[in-house]
Amino acid sequence: MPHVIALGEALIDFVSLEKGVTLEQSPGFEKAAGGAPANVAAGVAIMGTSAGFVGKVGDDFCGRFIKEVLFDAGVDLTNFVLDPGHHTQLAFVTVLADGSPDFTFYVPEAADTQLGIGDLNAEYIASADIFHFGSISLINEPIRLATFRAIEIAADAGCLISYDPNLRPPLWPDLETARREITAAIELCDVMKLSENELQFITGESDLATGAAQILAKGPELVAVTVGAEGCYYMNGQTQGMLKGFTVPVEETTGCGDAFVAGMLVKLFELMKDGREPGDLEDEELIPALSFANAAGALTATGKGAIPSLPPRDEVEEFLRDRLPEYFGEEDPD
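^ that's the sequence the OP posted. Answer follows.
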């Protein structure tokens, strides 16, 4: 059984062939498998830790393409469903001139929203060490109830619960509903990763420490806030701090946050095997783990599309050896 199981949406990202333009201005798009939880599962598997994905896509050429991509990444798909009655979700993506991604979603009542409680294998979910979910699966039924049931199963089995809100306003009926539902799920998780913008959206705070403290007070043991190329801020019950990011030539940023989550979960799993829980970790454990996650996110930005750009572990470690030799206890040759 996989050590890490992610549940939620899998979709097709159609990524603009040209950067710095709006979707209307794009001359064309390139197809790539995506969806945040699917990206996380793929990233974990590509980085060498066993991973499974629980989700539903259409039994169409897009869904079959996603299945092939996840299979090739090494993701366990025994609980991956091809639904002949609904189409796979499509997202059109461009990177605007300021470097931020712009999304639009195309398929109403897409297959991913149709995952129900009856599709869940409780034994499979309970067998994991880490269970990961996002907020997109909290928008529509029946996947909303299925997500809560899966979290309950995982929590009762002692799994570490990981949550990435991955805010996508066009998918929510309104922003107040999004804020309420995303916030309500925080108490269900042990580890939460969110972006700087998501932190401000949820807490109303622009100060990272103040906002992270609000999140931590709602129940998680560890909060990690990504700040793009600037790196990440972290806080748990023992320590807090800011980790500098890495400068890389950016091709496209879709999936960078998911790569960060995947890298973080891989490292947390390794620490868990030594009996270390996220809320007990000190700087000497958190800094290497989150540096690995930062590097995974940075490398993903150098490629186009999420899953095709996710780096294997040896590439992440080679990157760290070059950019951060102290990660391995080595002196900087310069």
